[in-house]
């Protein structure tokens, strides 16, 4: 399996600075991460950068098989090693952001969403906190792989709000879970089998708030050039208003 990736981040048309960050797979690492920071006085960009740094460092400092590494051999649960490694990396990020926010008044209350993917032979793990999303485009169909940790989504699940009404819900961007707001955080993780030709999209809500899923599905049809496609998506989000920072990663599975 070969993984081809492209990523892009943009400040949008209304924000003064970019609080998003992302990390692209390098070599055989097969790790991709998008983070959407929050907090005043530019602390959001500190939170997202800090989370990315903690996740990547954890991956680089732990062995693939976990042998001899106490951080992976603590017997916490029965997850597969690949799944547990991804979840623990995000937990490390949560602790790093929370500690920084607790120790500095400047960073008080900062946090970030995280959506990540880790590709292995034949499959991919998605782990996330918040409302940044992962999608799969396969055989002309786009499907969301993560479930938003947001007030709007909670209301939909409870039957208080209809899915069709989310777009006009005044608190649709209120998230119920984020990285760095508490000492411990629950990380949602799913595994999906991959097929040659699959295209995966990780993105902040600056993209999905500006482009509907149906429009995204249409735009992803031509994915021969991922760098070009990334720019097309960002440009479209900006044309549609660009109300927030826009960040995305495209990852294509090839033979």
From TrEMBL:
Any GO MF annotation of the entry: protein serine/threonine phosphatase activity
PPM-type phosphatase domain span: 4-253
InterPro entries: PP2C (IPR015655), PPM-type-like_dom_sf (IPR036457), PPM-type_phosphatase-like_dom (IPR001932)
Pfam families: PP2C_2
SMART domains the record matches: PP2C_SIG, PP2Cc
PANTHER family named in the record: PROTEIN PHOSPHATASE (PTHR47992)
Stated name of the protein: Stp1/IreP family PP2C-type Ser/Thr phosphatase
Species whose genome carries this gene: Microvenator marinus
